[in-house]
Structure formats: structure tokens, C-alpha cells
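fwd from M.: "can u put these together and see what the complex looks like"

so here's what she sent:
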Amino acid sequence: MYSKEELLRGLNTRVIGSKLFVFESIDSTNICAKTLAEAGIEDGAVVFAENQTEGRGRNGRSWLSEPGNNLLFSVVLRPELPKEKTVFLTFYSAVAVAHAVESLIGTSVECKWPNDLLLNSKKFCGILLESSFQQSSPVYSVVGIGINVNQRTFDMEMGNRVTSLSLEHERDFDRKHVFQRVLEHLDRLYGEVRAGDFKNIMKTWNAKCTMFGKPVTVSSAHDRFSGKALGLSSDGGLMIETSGGTSIVYAGDVSISQ
Amino acid sequence: MDLSYIKKIIRLVENSDVDEIEIEEEGKKIRVAKHRNSMVNYPIPMPGQYPLPPTPSSGLIPQLEAPASEAKPKPEVHYHEIRSPIVGTFYRAPAPDAESYVEVGQTIKSGDVLCIVEAMKLMNEIESDVDGKVVKILVENGKPVEYNQVLFHVEKS
């Protein structure tokens, strides 16, 4: 298990990682980060854990990760954005992780709407953001990041849909190195985020998205439909061309149809 | 809207799991609500009047409202509105199998989470900005909501 000092040694950031909390095992780094945020913890604080007992994904799904082999951490952000721009934090975090991983592996990472990251069309990173809103504006946001680094085996059920850095590159990675790179790329883009300027981030995300022009299926709690992914709307929704016209999706599972 | 129709609606609500139903037809509106407890909000007292005691018995109170144009000016209760700050999907609970954050009739405090609105995998916990009681939940779980759409009516305490 990494110590706090080890994880911070050599880290070169201004805001992200300003405070670091390290746990061997915790319910969920997002839950912990939210609790700290409620208590007033500063912008950029990070919660790191080797194991999560209640790791979560979208829609109450669990996020499973082999203890000690991957990266699980959450970052508290307080960028003071207008409320309509908060959703762009989802693309910011995806682009930062993509840059960090690309700098280590030398090949391109693919983005899947809204913020999954793939290698060879298989997911290796999941991101879940949680914000607390009062009526006027968001108070804080928590970005939970799970990266499959050195895990080599996965449940049969997920078999061909998930992967890890080590599976794709047939070598183990220094997890501390990956962690620090992600924090550094989050930090590097954070100036633009705080200025409310997402132009570059969205340009990068769009260039990395491999869904556009492809047939996709959207599933949500009450709905399931298919169409062609056209691109992003100005507010970050996924525009889908269907037989009945163009729909914009803001939440749901989107998969590329086989 | 005749009396037999209203009676039918009352029976319908009485024999169902629905707590409240509101029907608007040709400018006439009827709302039928089950008593949840003895603290009844209806009818709305006039200023300076004491609230009427709750009607005993049936547990159902039909309410007929005349079309707005014909209505005499009457004081309205202005509930505090909790609106969606973003476009997204409305969830009443943190997960599909979890309990709802709030129910109608529940007392809430400023800062309590009332729901989640999800957009782009950002789960936005919407907090109340007032103390009070949830009077109405205007959106069904899992449905899309627009920017600034009213989600809850809260009676301020």
C-alpha cells in the first residue's frame, strides 16, 4: 500500500492534490470526498484508496476493482462555474485522464459519451461526478475516477468489454506514476476550467470520440431507442438521428450497435 | 363535470394506491386527495380566519375549482418552488433500489437533498434552500427535466 508521502513525492501541481487522504480500504472515495467537501475541504483535495467496499458507478451500479492493482480516487473541485457549465466537468476529467494515459502508453485513448475511456474499444476507466446544488449555484463537485491499471483478469460477464493498461500493453505499470500524471493533467487544465473556458477541452474530447457517425442504442430508465450518433449539442448532450428526427440525450447508457 | 363523475373519481382514488389525482377538463379542475393524517391542508383558510378543522370520516376531499376567468379573487398559497438547475434526468433516489430522498408530506430542512438530476454522468444532488414541508413532487422518477423546471413545491415553515 502506498503512503501519503510516497504518493506526493515528486508531484508537481498547483491546486489538484493540495490535500491528500489515503485509505487502505474505504466504502467509496466519492462518499468520503463528498463528506470532506461538505465539511469545507479545499479545492483540489484528493481521496485515494487501495480498495472500495461500495465502489459505485452510474445508476447505483457497483464499480469492482482488485485491491492494490488499480487506481481509485476522487477529487474535490470548487471551480465556481455558472450552473450550466458544471456538466462540462465530465469532459474535463475524461480529457485529463486521456492525456495522462496517452503520455504513458504512447497510443490513443478513445472517448465514449459522456466520459468513459477506452483502449481498443474496451473500457479501462470510469468516471462518476457528483455535485451538490443549491438553487443558485453548485457548491462543490466530486470527480470519482477508477482506472484499471494492473488487473489482468475480469469477470466473464464483463470479459470483452473491459480492459486494463497492463492487459493492453502486456506489462505492469507503476500506479503511483499513473496517479501523479492524472493529477498533473487535471491541474494543467484546471485554469481553463476555472475561467469557464471549455473550448480546448471540448475540441480534444470531440477529436477522441469514436462514436460519431455510428449506429448507437440508448437505454434509460423508461426508454430504449436506436439511431446514429451525430455529435454533441452546445450543452454537451449527445445528438442522435432517429427515424423520428434528432434527439438529444443527457443521461442514459449509450452503446455502439454491433 | 357532474356529481356522478366526481363520485366516480373519488371511488377510483379510494380503491387505488394513488394518494392524489388532479383532472382538468374544459377549464374545470378537480383534485381528489387522500388524508395522510389528521393534519389537513385543505381548505385553504382566508387571511384572518382560523383553519377549519379537518373533516372527519371518508378520508377523501374533493375540490372543485372554477375556471380562472370566472373565479373571484382569492388569496393563493404560494409554495416555494425547487427548480432544476440543469437539463437532465430526474431521480428521486440515489439508486434504483434505494429509498426516495423525500416523500410528499415530509418535513425538510435547508440543505437536505431532495433529488438527483443527472446529466452527462454528473449526478447533481439538488438541495432544498428552505425549511418546510414537501407539498408536491411534480416530476416522475426517471423522467427528463428541462432547465429551470419546477420539481417540488415546498410549504415554508
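replying to her w this: Chain B has a mean pLDDT of 74.
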